[in-house]
Write a structure and sequence with these properties.
By secondary structure, the chain is α/β, with parallel strands linked by helices. The protein is built from eight helices and seven strands; from the N terminus they run H-H-H-E-H-E-H-E-E-H-H-E-H-E-E. It has a seven-stranded mixed beta sheet with strand order 3-2-1-4-5-7-6.
C-alpha cells in the first residue's frame, strides 16, 4: 500500500458537522430516520446467527443496530468521534461495539476479521483521488470467504462529477473490488427519482476464501 492517507486529508469536516448539529439529526445531511432500506431488505433474507459484522462510517448507528437486531456481533466505526458519542447516547443499551477509527489507518487486528462488511455512503463521500485505496481498505476487513455489502449512489460515466460530495461511484471504481479478487455474487439496481442522485446499487461481494 502507498503512504497512509490521514483522515484529516479527506474528511476532517465530518466531526465538526456532527458536533455543530448538537443532537439535531436534521442538521446531518445524510442521516436517515432509520436503517438504510437496502440493508433492511437484505436482512430479510440474511440473518446473523452470531457471525461478526463491521459497519464502515457508521454515523449515528441505525445500520449497526439493525445488524445487531438480526443476530450479528457488530463493530461499528466512524472517523468522527462526535458521531460515535451521539450513537452511544441514542442506543445506551446497545450490543454494538462503537469506536472511532480511521478507514485509512485501520487497527491491525481488524484486517481479515469480519464475516460481513457493510459499506453505505462512505466511499461516495470520499474524493475520487483516494477512492481506490478506500476500496482496498474496505475489502481488507473481510475474512476469507466473507461478504462485503456495498450500497451506493452510482454514475454511468467515468468522468468525475464537478460538484460533491457525494461523488457517485462509477462502474470502473466498483470494479476495483473484483480486481482485488472479490466476486460480485448479487447486484440490485434501483432508483429514487426524487433525488438528484437517482441511480443506486446494492452489490454483495464475496472475498476469496
Amino acid at each position: 500500500m502507498s503512504e497512509k492517507i490521514s483522515a484529516a486529508d479527506t474528511y476532517d469536516w465530518f466531526d465538526p458537522l456532527y458536533a455543530r448539529a448538537e443532537g439535531d439529526m436534521t442538521q446531518v445531511p445524510w442521516a436517515l430516520s432509520g436503517p438504510a432500506p437496502a440493508l433492511v431488505d437484505w436482512l430479510a433474507k440474511n440473518q446473523g446467527q452470531g457471525r461478526s459484522a463491521v459497519v464502515v462510517g457508521c454515523g449515528l448507528g441505525d445500520d449497526a443496530e439493525a445488524l445487531a437486531a438480526a443476530g450479528f456481533e457488530v463493530t461499528a466505526f466512524d472517523v468522527a468521534g462526535s458521531a460515535i458519542s451521539w450513537a452511544k447516547q441514542r442506543f445506551p443499551d446497545s450490543l454494538v461495539t462503537y469506536t472511532a477509527a480511521d478507514l485509512f489507518n485501520l487497527p491491525a487486528d481488524w484486517l481479515g476479521k469480519f464475516d460481513l462488511v457493510f459499506e453505505f455512503r462512505t466511499l461516495q463521500a470520499l474524493p475520487v483521488t483516494v477512492r481506490t485505496e478506500a476500496v482496498e481498505q474496505v475489502a481488507a476487513l473481510a475474512k476469507p470467504g466473507g461478504a462485503v455489502l456495498v450500497v451506493t449512489y452510482t454514475r454511468d460515466s467515468d468522468e468525475v462529477p464537478d460538484d460533491g460530495p457525494p461523488w457517485p461511484l462509477s462502474e470502473l471504481e466498483l470494479a476495483h473490488f473484483e480486481a482485488l479478487g472479490l466476486s460480485a455474487i448479487a447486484r440490485k439496481r434501483f432508483q429514487k427519482k426524487s433525488s438528484r442522485f437517482g441511480d443506486r446499487a446494492r452489490i454483495q461481494y464475496q472475498a476469496p476464501g
